[in-house]
Amino acid sequence: DRQPIIAIDGPAGAGKSTVARQVATQLGLVYLDTGAMYRAVTWLVLQQGIAIDDDCAIAELANKCKIELTPSQDIKFPVRVWINDTDVTQAIRSIEVTSQVSAIAAQAAVRQALVKQQQNWGKRGGLVAEGRDIGTHVFPDAEVKIFLTASVGERARRRQQDFKTQGQPEVSLEQLEKDIAERDWKDSTRKVSPLKKAVDAIELQTDGLSISEVTSKIVDYYQQRL
Ligand code: C5P
């Protein structure tokens, strides 16, 4: 017996984090950002100077590391992320981590280690989990499954806005579109748990919709279902 779970999946920059967080707040559920976990492992791999294709060393690191996610009042970084007791909240949003994370997240052993932890955290339910494989693999029995999308152009604009808010160096829209398209391609073509809409997920195309509009659509849908 467990509390309900909402699974939100979709490509990079579709607004999953912001929306998932607001849905969680409105419904009194816990928010789980699984992308932050893959980013934290990637940060540690880079920090330790391990080669991106050294599957063995990376598998060992993923199995041994301790990841903690804690909510925070900081509007720029509403979730604080720790790996092996180092606060990597800001560091995991860097261009370096972002450009390498898909290669790390494609490794079977890394996914196995992180999915196990996610399922452990979600045992009692009561959460909104967000990522690429939540509805398909992590919580296939989630009561509500949403597949959030937006055009590449729209997602690049949102990312640029995020960077501004976070005080990161400015990146051109063209570059952002290229990076997003590349990450989409890597995430949807990998062998293990590729980004895919679950058959029973609802697809929400969010171009031109505000965060609060998307949030209320999901909240309404949840309330109809339960
Ligand atoms: O959501 P975010 O952009 O932070 O995710 C970073 C990367 O982590 C994704 O591009 C993807 O490669 C990986 N990821 C994943 N499975 C998840 C969440 C994230 O493979 N459930």
Automatic annotation (TrEMBL):
It is found in: Cytoplasm. Residues 6-224 form the Cytidylate kinase domain. Signal peptide: none annotated. Residues 1-226 are annotated as: Cytidylate kinase. Catalyzes the transfer of a phosphate group from ATP to either CMP or dCMP to form CDP or dCDP and ADP, respectively. Catalyzes the condensation of pantoate with beta-alanine in an ATP-dependent reaction via a pantoyl-adenylate intermediate. Belongs to the pantothenate synthetase family. This is Bifunctional pantoate ligase/cytidylate kinase. The chain holds residues 306 to 531 of 534 of the full protein.
